[in-house]
Task: inverse folding
């Protein structure tokens, strides 16, 4: 018999694919949780020490699109 048409092997392949998908979802959620925790801590530090913030700079710098980039006309 062909390996992929064997019902016993097909069940193991389907179980392995399902396991890989669930592990990927779990890893992604863990990554998001760590990022959210870091942002919460940064926000708490910022609220606890408002005197250290001179010009209300954002926690993360904004991305500058190529259209907004300043160019010098020298």
Result:
């Amino acid at each position: 018999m062909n390996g992929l048409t064997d019902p016993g092997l097909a069940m193991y392949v389907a179980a392995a694919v399902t396991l890989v998908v669930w592990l990927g979802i779990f890893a992604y959620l863990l990554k998001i949780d760590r990022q959210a925790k870091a942002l919460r801590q940064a926000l708490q530090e910022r609220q606890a020490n408002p005197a250290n913030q001179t010009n209300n700079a954002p926690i993360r710098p904004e991305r500058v699109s190529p259209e907004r980039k300043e160019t010098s006309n020298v």
Observations:
- The two ends are 75 Å apart (CA to CA).
